[in-house]
Amino acid sequence: MGPGKKNLKATKKFEKNHLRGVLDKRKDIAKIKQRQQIKEKKKSRHTKDSEFFKSKPAEDGADSAKKPSDLFRNKKSGEMTVDDFFQGGFDDIIDSKDTNKAGKLGKKRKRNEPAAEAEDAETSDDNGSGVNLGQQPGAAADDDDSEDDDGDDDDEGGMSKDTMEKLAEKDPEFYKFLKENDPEALDFDDNADLAEVDELSAGEEDDQDQDEQPKKKRKKAKATKEGKAKGEDNGDAEEEPSQGNELTRPMVAKWRKAIEETNSLRAARQVVLAFRSAAHLNEDDEDGETQPRWAINSPEVYNDVLVLALKHIPMVMNHHLPVKESASGRVYVQTETKKFKTLSLLLKSYTSSIMHLLGTLSDDKTLKLTLSSITPILPYLLSFKKLIRALAKAVVNFWAQPASSETTRITAFLVLRKLVVIGDKGIRETALKAVYQGLVQGCRVTNHNTIQGINLMKNSAAELWGIDPSVGYTTAFTFIRQLAIHLRNSIVNNKNDSFRLVYNWQFTHSLDFWSCVLAEQCSPLKEAEAGKENQLKLLIYPLVQVTLGAIRLIPTAIYFPLRFHLIRSLLRTSRATGTYIPLASPILEVLSSAEMKKPPKASTLKAFDFAVAYKAPKSYLRTRVFQDGIGEQVMELLGEFFLLWSTSIAFPELALPVIIQLKRWMKQARSKTQGNKNAKLTSQLVLLVHKLEANAKFIEGHRAKVDFAPRDRTQVAAFLKDFEVGKTPLGAFVLAQRTVKEERTRMLDEARREDERKRKEEEQNGTGGEYMSEEEEEDDEMEVDDEEEEEDEGEEDEEDEDEDEDENEDEDEEDE
């Protein structure tokens, strides 16, 4: 047993440490031996060929002696094998009647072995060779260059129609011979059109896919003034007009019929070519090298081609390559088949045309149809990474474009969602990054016209991060970390404009978006459905820290609107996840600022809209209208914050410090010597304090009836868990305030729309200028704000001095 165990241990050790290297070494040695054998065979064949030429009968005379040199002017006869002789011989024999060389024709013909042997028998009188070209190394190398993916001679062996016609013109005798002895060699090759489609989409092929797809290059588009017949569906030939390749409605109708009845691939190829021409309509070719396959001169034909291509090409693809679904729910297409490799050229050209067409469309219906046609072809594009990246960016552009309608945004989002669902981890990460970048770019301009679309983007994109929690976590962590780096750089760099990295719409909307993601994916309902805790929940703490840091970066009144936006984001996160976030302090800091301690000045400015502004113009500072707006925001945010914990057993202790601080501020505000003396603001805060005290007494009354200790966490968490929040004193007050705010917002929106309608009527009547659009007003305000930003630091210093004076006055009062 001892030696056996020892040998077993040595065997395992050898397998672990040395087996892989030994196998690799053996493979390398085998490859070297194989190469040496090939060289030896080639050398022996070369020797036999040389002897063959030297032993030619003398009666052949000078003609036979000149044959090798005449047939191969560019090669030395001593370097050629019999196989090379036959291959090159066919090219020169066929082209002997014409001065041009037919290299491509020779490559096509060399795959048809019977035809090659017959041609050799008629032209070279070599009756003793009988060599199979397909078995020679030289022929195999040539085939590799032209057949890469297909790997099937039947698929590549047929002649294209142009090649067949050229052969009939140049060598009618040989054409007749092939027709009688090998008619299959003259069959029209469907892949000739695929080479043409490949030429159309050559610019967008992935570098990784170049080894998977055929590399044939189509010749330049030929003029059809001669009226030659083109191959149509079911083998029928349709004669094209002599006035260029003009596309007509009967042609489109014929293609539609062929596709609907037989799912014809040939008709589908013609439709893709016509669709390509329609997508590039009225575009000048700078190089002048390529011409559109079809000329579209009628809007009816243009519409028919678009509808036919967008609706029926996905159906044809699904018929010939049905999408299958695995047991785990993943969809897949058999990419190893010859049919997929053939149709991939058609598919890439079709997708490239769609992406180009999207950049030229503006009509909502056409955009919806075009975007909808992308969804069914996504499973076929998963193996083309570069094309998927370009397609995702094109779709995200319409999803994030401010000018896009709601219908277009939703349609584009459905395409992106489908891509994330069926894609692998790499595709999902690519799509999520493109979505986030599009969101950041699309929210750069925020006003009443764009805020609805921005909210739609944030709410829809939040769903994508829950499809794959692992990919969602890594991407979310990366982007939140970038926000933290921007915040750190703003704090560390002592420059006047360093805060602008943080205090802008893009940073604000980014933080708000991640709060939407965490609120959507980390809610108790979602976790109950999944049966486990979501990984994204780990990002709540870093997001809250970054948001609180951004709130306190510049605590001046001019950026109070941004502070309110970020506090609302944190409230959403706290409400959805049940996480306690201490928000009372940043809200009360607003009341402690210099802006709210001094009496306001009267002004005729309109009410400040906090919903679509992240900073206040300097003209609003110290005004009554701005101070009233700040008071409303403070009361609303404090009410929403305490509403989250209105049924908590610890509510009295949570509300007590805030109640004390609010009472102290109201006492100072009513002072005759100092305070802002704003009766409206004071009355609002008095009402809020009353509701907080009432809710604290309500909780104390229920708490007096419990029979468990504070350390019993289960019972503490279950305290008033099923009690309706709206029945608490604070809950009823906050819900009523929400209703009032919604009604006020609705009335303001109606008034805004009415002003916009009147402005448009004035412009149409030629008396415009009386009404100014919101964008123009905001542009004017932003210009003023840019000038005011230079004075921000001076304003901060003034406020700091005012706060110091107020603190000194408070100390004097306490001493008295």
UniProtKB/TrEMBL annotation:
Ranges annotated as biased composition (Basic residues): 1-11, 32-46
Keywords for the protein's UniProt record, in alphabetical order: Nucleus
One Pfam family this sequence matches: Noc2
Composition bias type Polar residues, residue spans: 126-135
Record carries keyword Nucleus: yes
Ranges of Basic and acidic residues composition bias in the record: 12-31, 47-78, 158-182, 223-233, 746-763
Localization of this protein: Nucleus
Keyword Nucleus among UniProt keywords: yes
GO cellular component: Noc1p-Noc2p complex; Noc2p-Noc3p complex; nucleolus; nucleoplasm
Bias type Acidic residues, positions: 116-125, 141-157, 183-211, 772-816
Biological process (GO), any one: ribosomal large subunit biogenesis
Coiled-coil residue windows: none
Residues covered by region (Disordered): 1-251, 746-816
Domain of life: Eukaryota
Family membership noted in the UniProt record: Belongs to the NOC2 family.
Designated name of the protein: Nucleolar complex protein 2
